[in-house]
Design a protein that fits this description.
Two copies of one chain form a homodimer.
Chain A: E1 19-21, E2 25-27, E3 31-38, E4 42-43, E5 49-50, E6 53-60, E7 70-74, E8 100-101, E9 106-107, E10 112-116, E11 131-132, E12 137-138, H1 148-161, E13 167-173, H2 175-186, E14 191-197, H3 205-220, H4 237-251, H5 254-260, H6 280-293, H7 298-310, H8 313-316, H9 321-325, E15 331-337, H10 345-357, E16 362-367, H11 381-398
Parallel strand pairs in A: 7-10, 7-13, 8-9, 13-14, 14-15, 15-16
Antiparallel strand pairs in A: 1-3, 2-3, 3-6, 4-5, 6-10, 11-12
Chain lengths: ~400, ~400
């Protein structure tokens, strides 16, 4: 495994004859990329069709001869394919760095790990930041609106390109968990295990509300220019920073905020009686906003939050969530975090009840932690050991050595 | 009682000889106003001093001969003196309209109700929107930063002007509850009853975080112009709307959002696959943002949120909250709402524990409701009957007929 750059796969013969795959490319800033061109184009849920799409991805470990040890890991709203190693833009370690290693939860000596930047993202996959060949400018809002279903359909085509008919597991936290659920519900024959972590089968109105605030903050920034900021040489950094600050508060629990910051002042002994950062929590949030604008595309933020808002498996199955999970051999490993108020344990239990009603095999664990939604990205040993144990047990059952 | 305009009080001889009070004025847009000029100026907690301040206020009912039936009601962050009647700007009914009437919770046949716009506000009281005589332009950020302590000190001077040495009660919800607490702790000899509702003895880091997001949204709007928007003929409406949307979500419970909106679409049968309002909750939030910019001053929003952030009775008493309440005859009526996640029942219980530790008389009620923080402004009969009963019992004890 190379640090931060998976082994380049030789792109296999198309699994579907009706799709052509471009040769694997590697770009220093986004890693591996593949062009995917279904004969009749890539059809979005919105009805839009694009001739071809690109997915950027990383792989870790080695695909076995039976092509049966693939684990697709799906990132959250602002994550990307750099799950481990050094991120080429931020220089930081990947978002699940501690889990991906020889003998780790995602054991690279046993599994072949694939992580794609989602469709609509800004780390090499097709999205609003992609250059439109017709105008030589980024698509911006001319890019079709993307759904979780579109993201997953694109991923299935990458699996075709990689010659992987059936994945050992699809795993993800937060939005990544929505993708994992969509895989299990739409393509149950293509995976053994689905692990939706800190997620929900439908985005709640409160979560839609927080996303809408973020979008309004971006679109209120005059530098957003109806999404054409790049062509016009500007950038809505202030709006995007406010959006990130809002989202960030929802990732933390009240307890974490109390423990981490309380009402402590930032580098001062007394209140300033002004509007600069007095409290550490303000300074921290401003920093989070600033760091984000250096790594993320504002239009992608609009697209991906929209995709999450649209996600509603219950509505897709006429109000009967159990039907979504019915008649499937997929094994579910549902995990929630006790202090997560964005994707609550109640959301997970709702899923689990429907899975049980559908008679599918499901294991559910609520991890006791005060770290809030962010827990899925942090060092929470009980979470890691739960996932580790589940995967190892299933791997032994499936004969993956 | 006139609809929306309290009886104009003849301003009494100054209670303190060292303060001069201007004649009572009445302006159609803000109601009653009084100028207050302490001999050595009005000293803010920040150290700033202003020669004179103005408070706008409304009164309802009649002050009795003993001047013992005054109830000061303190508004929340964006409230004002129009607690009942028709608001001169919005045309809507006052924020506690149902409670202020003959025989009501705030029985106008029994009590003399006073409501002031807080110092720093934008409904006639001195604040950043006030015209600076030196420049003939609004003060903007040249107005001193205001604290809850400053707001209350100004109110004590209005009571002096009205000739009220001791109030029967000081009552308020949310920020208004902070003012009520400040009254009881700093001026215990000037009130019998303190009713802090849906509030806290110190603003939490999560609440500071949400306020900071709102301030950043306002200040990120290029039309804010460092607070000089009025002089420059512009208005940061987009930033203020985003600030309001953020705050508004914190006023509602997840349950209310589910019940009121769920994932229902706004005037459409299917998703639009775009960035306009698809969901009712989005449309509702945008409306809340829009309505707010038509009635509130962006700089006042900065000032008042800052005042709440700074509020910390515990810190003011060296980390011993019980000391804040010690050796006082004030009777407390603490009320919280079960689904309020902004000012939680835990916040109220923390206060009540300190009050008990200080040996003061306190009654505490948690009202079971799914309406969230907003419950204090809504028709919640158990809340109203709790407050009504407490006030009537105490009025009988005090001989107020």
């Amino acid at each position: 495994m190379q640090d931060g750059y998976g082994e380049a796969m030789h792109v296999s013969a198309p699994y579907h004859q009706s799709i052509s795959f471009g040769a694997d490319q590697r770009r220093a800033d986004v890693g591996l990329m593949v062009d995917i061109a279904p004969v009749s184009g890539f059809a979005f849920d919105s009805g839009a069709v694009m001739e071809r799409i690109t997915l950027a991805y990383q792989t870790y470990g080695t695909l076995n001869a039976a092509r049966s040890n693939g684990i697709l890991i799906c990132h959250g709203l602002t994550g990307d394919q750099y799950i481990t190693g050094t991120h080429p833009v931020t220089g930081k370690r990947g978002w699940w760095d501690a889990l991906v290693k020889d003998g780790g939860v995602f054991d690279t000596s046993r599994y072949f790990i694939i992580v794609t930047n989602v469709l609509g993202g800004c780390m090499g996959s097709s999205g609003p930041k992609q250059i439109d060949p017709a105008t030589k400018q980024p698509y911006g809002l001319d890019f079709p609106v993307v759904t979780i279903g579109d993201m997953v359909r694109a991923q299935t085509l990458l699996m075709d390109a990689l010659g992987i008919e059936k994945l050992f597991a699809v795993i993800g936290g937060s939005m990544g968990g929505m993708l994992a659920l969509e895989w299990a519900v739409r393509y149950p024959h293509r995976l053994n295990i689905c692990a939706p972590i800190a997620t929900s089968a439908r985005h709640s109105p409160q979560n839609i509300a927080f996303h809408e605030i973020g979008r309004q903050a971006v679109m209120a920034d005059p530098n957003w220019r109806e999404g054409r900021y790049e062509a016009l040489g500007c950038f809505p950094s202030k709006g995007l920073a406010v959006a990130r600050m809002t989202a960030h508060v929802t990732y933390l629990s009240e307890t974490v905020l109390q423990q981490k910051f309380g009402r402590k002042l930032q580098n001062k002994q007394q209140l300033s009686y002004g509007f600069d950062s007095d409290f550490q929590v303000e300074s921290y949030l401003r920093h989070q906003g600033q760091a984000f604008v250096e790594r993320f595309d504002p239009n992608s933020y609009l697209y991906i939050t929209r995709a999450m808002d649209y996600f509603d498996l219950e509505a897709e199955f006429d109000g009967h969530l159990a039907r979504a999970f019915a008649a499937s051999h997929v094994r579910y490993c549902v995990i929630s975090f006790s202090s997560d108020w964005l994707f609550t344990t109640a959301d997970s239990k709702r899923m689990v009840r429907a899975m049980n009603a559908a008679g599918v095999r499901v294991s559910f664990t609520e991890i006791a932690t005060d770290k809030g939604h962010d827990a899925f990205l942090l060092d929470v040993p009980e979470f890691h050991s739960t996932l580790h144990g589940f995967l190892r047990g299933m791997a032994e059952e499936e004969g993956l050595s």
